Protein backbone atom coordinates (compact mmCIF):
# COMPACT_ATOMS: atom_id res chain seq x y z
CA UNK A 1 0.00 0.00 0.00
CA UNK A 2 1.15 3.58 -0.48
CA UNK A 3 1.15 4.46 3.22
CA UNK A 4 1.14 1.13 5.06
CA UNK A 5 1.88 -2.57 4.80
CA UNK A 6 0.16 -5.70 5.99
CA UNK A 7 1.03 -9.33 6.45
CA UNK A 8 -2.07 -11.41 5.72
CA UNK A 9 -0.73 -14.55 7.39
CA UNK A 10 1.25 -15.01 10.59
CA UNK A 11 4.83 -16.29 10.53
CA UNK A 12 5.05 -20.06 10.37
CA UNK A 13 7.58 -20.35 13.16
CA UNK A 14 7.67 -21.54 16.75
CA UNK A 15 7.07 -17.96 17.93
CA UNK A 16 3.55 -18.32 16.47
CA UNK A 17 1.53 -19.81 19.36
CA UNK A 18 -0.84 -21.70 17.03
CA UNK A 19 2.06 -23.34 15.19
CA UNK A 20 3.83 -24.17 18.46
CA UNK A 21 0.64 -25.79 19.79
CA UNK A 22 0.14 -27.74 16.55
CA UNK A 23 3.65 -29.23 16.68
CA UNK A 24 3.57 -29.77 20.46
CA UNK A 25 0.29 -31.70 20.20
CA UNK A 26 1.64 -33.82 17.38
CA UNK A 27 4.98 -34.59 19.07
CA UNK A 28 3.71 -35.15 22.61
CA UNK A 29 6.61 -35.98 24.99
CA UNK A 30 9.12 -35.63 22.13
CA UNK A 31 8.25 -31.90 21.82
CA UNK A 32 10.62 -30.89 24.62
CA UNK A 33 13.55 -32.47 22.75
CA UNK A 34 12.60 -31.21 19.28
CA UNK A 35 11.08 -27.74 19.76
CA UNK A 36 13.57 -25.13 20.92
CA UNK A 37 11.40 -22.05 21.43
CA UNK A 38 14.32 -19.90 22.63
CA UNK A 39 16.23 -20.35 19.35
CA UNK A 40 13.09 -20.78 17.25
CA UNK A 41 14.26 -24.03 15.69
CA UNK A 42 12.65 -27.41 15.18
CA UNK A 43 15.57 -29.76 15.94
CA UNK A 44 15.76 -33.23 14.40
CA UNK A 45 16.54 -35.78 17.13
CA UNK A 46 18.64 -38.12 14.97
CA UNK A 47 19.88 -36.33 11.83
CA UNK A 48 23.16 -34.41 11.96
CA UNK A 49 24.53 -31.69 9.66
CA UNK A 50 27.78 -32.53 7.92
CA UNK A 51 30.09 -29.97 9.51
CA UNK A 52 33.17 -31.02 7.53
CA UNK A 53 36.49 -31.82 9.19
CA UNK A 54 36.70 -28.60 11.20
CA UNK A 55 33.68 -28.89 13.47
CA UNK A 56 31.62 -31.40 15.41
CA UNK A 57 28.42 -32.32 13.53
CA UNK A 58 25.37 -30.52 14.89
CA UNK A 59 21.72 -31.62 14.87
CA UNK A 60 19.80 -30.59 11.76
CA UNK A 61 17.38 -27.74 12.40
CA UNK A 62 14.50 -26.09 10.55
CA UNK A 63 13.47 -22.48 11.26
CA UNK A 64 9.98 -22.78 9.78
CA UNK A 65 6.99 -24.88 10.78
CA UNK A 66 5.67 -24.87 7.21
CA UNK A 67 8.17 -25.33 4.42
CA UNK A 68 8.70 -26.92 1.02
CA UNK A 69 11.54 -29.40 0.66
CA UNK A 70 12.18 -30.22 4.32
CA UNK A 71 10.93 -33.82 4.01
CA UNK A 72 13.13 -35.00 6.90
CA UNK A 73 11.11 -32.80 9.25
CA UNK A 74 7.66 -34.05 8.18
CA UNK A 75 7.64 -36.57 11.04
CA UNK A 76 8.16 -33.63 13.42
CA UNK A 77 5.15 -31.71 12.10
CA UNK A 78 6.83 -29.43 9.55
CA UNK A 79 4.32 -29.38 6.70
CA UNK A 80 4.20 -27.96 3.20
CA UNK A 81 0.52 -27.04 3.51
CA UNK A 82 0.14 -23.29 2.87
CA UNK A 83 -2.16 -21.03 4.84
CA UNK A 84 -4.75 -19.65 2.41
CA UNK A 85 -6.20 -16.15 2.76
CA UNK A 86 -8.12 -13.63 0.65
CA UNK A 87 -6.66 -10.14 0.38
CA UNK A 88 -8.42 -6.97 -0.80
CA UNK A 89 -6.03 -5.45 -3.37
CA UNK A 90 -8.06 -2.39 -4.37
CA UNK A 91 -5.55 -0.05 -2.71
CA UNK A 92 -2.48 -2.26 -2.98
CA UNK A 93 0.64 -1.35 -4.92
CA UNK A 94 2.10 -4.85 -4.92
CA UNK A 95 1.93 -8.27 -3.35
CA UNK A 96 5.24 -9.86 -2.35
CA UNK A 97 5.33 -13.61 -1.83
CA UNK A 98 8.75 -14.72 -0.64
CA UNK A 99 10.77 -17.25 1.29
CA UNK A 100 12.58 -16.55 4.53
CA UNK A 101 15.65 -15.70 2.44
CA UNK A 102 13.94 -12.32 1.88
CA UNK A 103 11.97 -11.89 5.12
CA UNK A 104 14.90 -12.72 7.40
CA UNK A 105 17.18 -10.26 5.61
CA UNK A 106 15.50 -7.20 7.08
CA UNK A 107 15.84 -6.69 10.84
CA UNK A 108 13.23 -5.34 13.21
CA UNK A 109 9.69 -6.18 14.29
CA UNK A 110 6.90 -7.10 11.93
CA UNK A 111 3.23 -6.64 12.57
CA UNK A 112 0.70 -9.21 11.36
CA UNK A 113 -2.62 -8.01 10.00
CA UNK A 114 -4.26 -8.79 13.35
CA UNK A 115 -1.84 -6.61 15.32
CA UNK A 116 0.85 -7.56 17.81
CA UNK A 117 4.39 -8.50 16.91
CA UNK A 118 5.93 -11.75 15.81
CA UNK A 119 9.48 -12.98 16.15
CA UNK A 120 11.43 -14.92 13.59
CA UNK A 121 13.96 -17.61 14.28
CA UNK A 122 17.50 -16.71 15.25
CA UNK A 123 18.19 -16.30 18.93
CA UNK A 124 14.63 -15.27 19.70
CA UNK A 125 15.05 -11.80 18.18
CA UNK A 126 12.92 -10.19 15.48
CA UNK A 127 14.69 -10.53 12.13
CA UNK A 128 11.77 -9.81 9.90
CA UNK A 129 10.81 -6.32 8.92
CA UNK A 130 7.79 -6.01 6.66
CA UNK A 131 8.02 -2.21 6.90
CA UNK A 132 11.56 -2.29 5.50
CA UNK A 133 10.50 -4.56 2.66
CA UNK A 134 7.45 -2.38 1.91
CA UNK A 135 9.67 0.71 1.83
CA UNK A 136 12.10 -1.04 -0.53
CA UNK A 137 9.22 -2.15 -2.78
CA UNK A 138 7.92 1.44 -2.95
CA UNK A 139 11.44 2.59 -3.86
CA UNK A 140 11.74 -0.14 -6.51
CA UNK A 141 8.34 0.79 -7.99
CA UNK A 142 9.35 4.46 -8.18
CA UNK A 143 12.43 3.47 -10.19
CA UNK A 144 10.64 0.98 -12.48
CA UNK A 145 10.99 1.87 -16.15
CA UNK A 146 8.12 0.07 -17.86
CA UNK A 147 4.35 0.13 -18.11
CA UNK A 148 4.05 -3.65 -18.41
CA UNK A 149 3.08 -5.29 -15.11
CA UNK A 150 5.28 -8.27 -15.95
CA UNK A 151 8.33 -6.04 -16.58
CA UNK A 152 7.67 -3.98 -13.43
CA UNK A 153 7.19 -7.13 -11.34
CA UNK A 154 10.51 -8.47 -12.67
CA UNK A 155 12.21 -5.14 -11.86
CA UNK A 156 10.81 -5.17 -8.30
CA UNK A 157 11.97 -8.78 -7.82
CA UNK A 158 15.44 -7.96 -9.18
CA UNK A 159 15.62 -4.85 -6.98
CA UNK A 160 14.82 -6.84 -3.82
CA UNK A 161 17.29 -9.61 -4.71
CA UNK A 162 20.01 -7.04 -5.55
CA UNK A 163 19.41 -5.38 -2.16
CA UNK A 164 19.80 -8.68 -0.28
CA UNK A 165 22.92 -9.63 -2.23
CA UNK A 166 24.56 -6.22 -1.68
CA UNK A 167 23.72 -6.10 2.03
CA UNK A 168 25.12 -9.60 2.70
CA UNK A 169 27.95 -9.73 0.19
CA UNK A 170 26.03 -12.52 -1.53
CA UNK A 171 23.10 -14.76 -0.74
CA UNK A 172 23.14 -16.44 2.68
CA UNK A 173 19.92 -18.44 2.29
CA UNK A 174 17.78 -19.92 -0.44
CA UNK A 175 15.74 -16.96 -1.65
CA UNK A 176 12.52 -16.99 -3.64
CA UNK A 177 10.66 -13.76 -4.43
CA UNK A 178 7.44 -13.33 -6.41
CA UNK A 179 6.18 -9.78 -7.03
CA UNK A 180 2.67 -9.03 -8.28
CA UNK A 181 2.16 -5.38 -9.26
CA UNK A 182 -1.30 -3.76 -9.23
CA UNK A 183 -2.87 -0.77 -11.01
CA UNK A 184 -4.66 2.04 -9.15
CA UNK A 185 -7.90 0.00 -9.00
CA UNK A 186 -6.21 -3.09 -7.57
CA UNK A 187 -6.23 -5.04 -10.83
CA UNK A 188 -3.04 -6.19 -12.52
CA UNK A 189 -1.20 -3.15 -13.91
CA UNK A 190 -1.59 -4.44 -17.49
CA UNK A 191 -3.37 -7.48 -18.84
CA UNK A 192 -1.37 -10.67 -19.02
CA UNK A 193 -0.76 -11.96 -22.53
CA UNK A 194 -3.04 -14.83 -23.52
CA UNK A 195 -1.48 -18.21 -22.81
CA UNK A 196 -0.35 -20.15 -25.86
Biggest sheet, strands in spatial order? 1-2-3
Range of strand content: 5-15%
Oligomer type: single chain
Q: Uncertain segments of ≥5 residues (pLDDT<50)? A: 107-128, 192-196
Rg from alpha-carbon coordinates:
19 Å
Sequence of secondary-structure elements: HHEEEEHHHE
* CA-CA gap between termini: 33 Å
The SS-based structural class is alpha+beta
Arithmetic mean of pLDDT: 77
Set out the fold topology.
Blueprint: H1 17-27, H2 31-34, E1 35-36, E2 41-48, E3 59-62, E4 94-98, H3 100-103, H4 130-143, H5 149-168, E5 177-181
Antiparallel strand pairs: 1-2, 2-3, 4-5
Please sum up the structure shown:
This protein has 196 residues and is of the alpha+beta class.
Description:
It is a single chain. A hairpin with a 4-residue loop joins strand 1 and strand 2 (41-48). The protein has helices at 17-27, 31-34, 100-103, 130-143, 149-168, and strands at residues 35-36, 41-48, 59-62, 94-98, 177-181. The strands form two sheets. The chain has a three-stranded antiparallel β-sheet. With 196 residues, it is α+β, with helices and mostly antiparallel strands. The protein is globular, with a radius of gyration of 19 Å. Residues 107-128 and 192-196 have low confidence and may be disordered. Helix 4 crosses helix 5.
Fill in the keyword field for this structure.
globular; 196 residues; two-stranded antiparallel sheet; 5 helices; disordered C terminus; alpha+beta; three-stranded antiparallel β-sheet
Amino acid sequence: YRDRHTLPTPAHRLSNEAELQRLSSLLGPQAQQCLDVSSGYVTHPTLLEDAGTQHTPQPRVCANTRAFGDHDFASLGVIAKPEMVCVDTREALALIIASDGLWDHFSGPMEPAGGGTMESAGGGTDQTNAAGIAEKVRDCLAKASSSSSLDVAQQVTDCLLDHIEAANGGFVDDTTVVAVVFAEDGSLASPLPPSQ
